Amino acid sequence: MTFQAVLFDIDGTLVDNVDICTEAYRETFRRYTGQRFEDEAITRHYGKTEDGILAVHVAPERLPEAVETYFAVYSELHQAVREPFDGLRAILSFVQQRAALGVVTGKSLRLAEVSLRELGLRDYFAVVEGGFPDRADKAESLRRAAARLNLPPSQVLYVGDTAYDIASAAAAGMPVVGAGWSASTTIRPENAQPALRVFDRVAAFGDWLQGQL
Questions:
Q1: How crowded is the C-beta side of 121, counted as CA atoms within 13 Å?
Q2: Are residues 186 and 120 in the same domain?
Q3: Which of 12, 127, 137, 177 could form a Cys-Cys staple with 102, CB 3.0–4.6 A?
């Protein structure tokens, strides 16, 4: 199988920052609701953009302000995480010489740009697609990214760290591999199908990818 493009998720795939995302939501919710939400109460809504997630608990009239607060808190926390997973920058450089690169995330485009800028990765990616405030629909975002690259989904590989990523790629008709190198991954043997492979080390993924481009 030869791929013409490789698309990456961000959180838990390019960078170990899922805890940052969750903590930024927790702090924003605390400021605007006075309540402290546990991880599961926050992460169950992942897949939508930040305004969609914040709207679950924040009053509509305060939502625009809460979104700006979330961006500020997230950006501040991200200062402690300025590097992608070890070895990924070299993989991106390798792929960039042979195929198109892109990002598809449930975040908004604006928040995706914050992460990519903080990591110094923005220049690698020809396309960046975000999510939707009213629903989790990564399959549609994947199809849009492939269309922007003028490629059929079957020629584009997606790399994601969750069972949702795998299911979304399958729904989009896109081959997918599991990024199992993050402690936050939700990929398990029982939900890994139809991923081509699941890698628990970045280096193993890089070795495999060399034979696919």
A1: 29
A2: yes
A3: 127
Q: What's the helix, strand, coil split of the chain in %, to 5? A: 50, 15, 40
Q: Are residues 194 and 101 part of one domain?
A: yes
pLDDT tens by residue, the chain, 213 residues = 689 999 999 999 999 999 999 999 999 999 999 999 999 999 999 999 999 999 999 999 999 999 999 999 999 999 999 999 999 999 999 999 999 999 999 999 999 999 999 999 999 999 999 999 999 999 999 999 999 999 999 999 999 999 999 999 999 999 999 999 998 999 998 999 999 999 999 999 999 999 998
Q: Are 72 and 176 contained in the same domain?
A: no
Amino acid at 116: L
Residue 50: both structure tokens together: 């930040």
24, 152, 159, 179, 195 from 163: Cα distances, Å: 23, 23, 11, 10, 10
Q: What CATH number did the domain enclosing 64 receive?
A: 1.10.150
Length of the chain: 213
Total of domains in the chain: 2
Which three-class secondary structure state does DSSP give residue 143?
helix
The helix/strand count (H/E) of the chain reads as: 9, 6
Domain that holds residue 63: 18-78
